What does this fold into?
Amino acid sequence: MIRRDFIKYSMISAAVLGSTNLYSSIQVRTNKNIKTTVAICGAGFAGLSCVKRLKELKPNLDVTVIEQNSSFSSCPFTNQWLANVANIKFEDLNFSYNNSINKYKYNFINAKVIDINKDKKIIFTSNQQISYDYLIIAAGIDYDYKKIIKDINKIEECKLKAPAGLKAGKEHITLKNMVQTFKGGNFIISIPNGSYKCPPAPYERACMIATYFKTNNIKGKVIVLDPREKPAAKPHKFLKAFNKYYKNYIEYLPHSNFKDIDFEQKQITFEIFDKSILDYKIKKLQFEQANIIPPNKANELIEIAKLETLHGFAKLKEPTYQSISSDTIYVIGDAQGQYPFPKSAQMANSCAYILAEDLISRIDNKKFNYKTNLPGNVCYSMITKTKAVSITHEYSYKKDKLKVKAEVSDINKQTAQSARAWYFGLTQDILK
It folds into this structure.
C-alpha cells in the first residue's frame, strides 16, 4: 500500500516536472524577463483561491502564479488518509494544476523564488525575472527547528524520521508508512508552543492513529506532549474524545515541553509541570515512532523580501492584508500574522477572496472597506471513523478592535458528512 502510493506520487511529480505539455502552452511563461500586473507566489489554497477570484472579477487581468511544486498536495484530510478512515484515497489529496490554469487562464511558472526586490518590484527565480505591479505572497509556513533542536544533523534526522506533517506531500507519505507498519509501543506526537498551522491537526491525528490501532488490534499508545494546559483547539471536545473513545490508546500530557530526541536509544526527553512542587521535572519516554512538530514561522519568502514580521509571521497594515513594509505586497494564508486568524485552508480561501476584491477595487481606483468585508472560518476534525467535530469563527469590529466569536459543534456523524462536503467542494472549486 505505502510503496504503491509512493511510486504513484513520484510518477506524478516526475511527469509534471518533465513535460510542460501538461500545462497549456498559452499560459506557461518560459521567457527570461516577464512583466505582469499581479504576481502570486504560492499555489496552495490561498494562492489558487486568489487567482480564481481575481480572474472571475477581471478576466483580462494579467496574473502570473509562481509555484515551486509541480503538483498540488492537500493537508486537510491527510490524517484520515494516514489511518485509512473515510475512504480517502491518494487521488483525493493530490491534483495537477492543469485544470486550474486552463479554466481561469492565468500564467504559471513552475520554479523556486530565490529573491524578491520589493523596491524595484522584481521576483527572481533561477532562470527568470518577473516584474510586477502588485505581489501576493501565499507561500505558507516554514519550520523553526532551531528553537527546539540545536544540532543541525539531528534536525535533518528529525525531518526524515519524525516528520512534522504540516507540509503537504512527502511528509505525509512518511507518516503513513510509520502508522501502517507500526507493531506496538509508543507513538509520540509533540506539539509546539505558539502559533502553528491548523491548530486542531495534531489532536485529530492522535485520534486517527488511535483509530488505526483499535481497528487493527495493535498494542500501541499515542502519547501527546502539549505545552498547553489543554488542546489548542476544541479543547473540551478533544479531551472528551480521548477519554470516551481512546482511553487505552491516547495519553494526553499537558504542560509538557519537548527537549530532545535520541533516535539510537529511541528516547524522547521532555519536561512536565509537577503541581506538587510547582516546577518542571525532566522525564524520558521510549518511542517506536515520533511525530515532532517544531514551532512554525512564515515561509522564507517573507524574509527574502525583507518584510517586517510579528512573532515570526508577516506583519500587516491594519486592517488590510498589505505588508507593513510595502504598499504593493500583500500576504495571505498561513504566513499571515497580525490577526487572530486560524492557519486553516478555509481561512486561506476566505482571505484570498477578500484580497481579490480589494485589489480589483484598487486597480479600478475604487475604495474597499476591510472592516465590512471580514473572513469566516470553519475547521473540521475527525474524531472516530464516522464522527467529527467542527469549530466556526465569525469576526467583527467593535470600536476599531477585531473581535472573534467561536462556536464548537457536537461530535456526531452529521459533522463528519459536512466535513467531507466542505473538503470536496473546496477542491472542486479551485482545482477542477
Remarks:
- Confidence is low (pLDDT under 50) at residues 1-26.
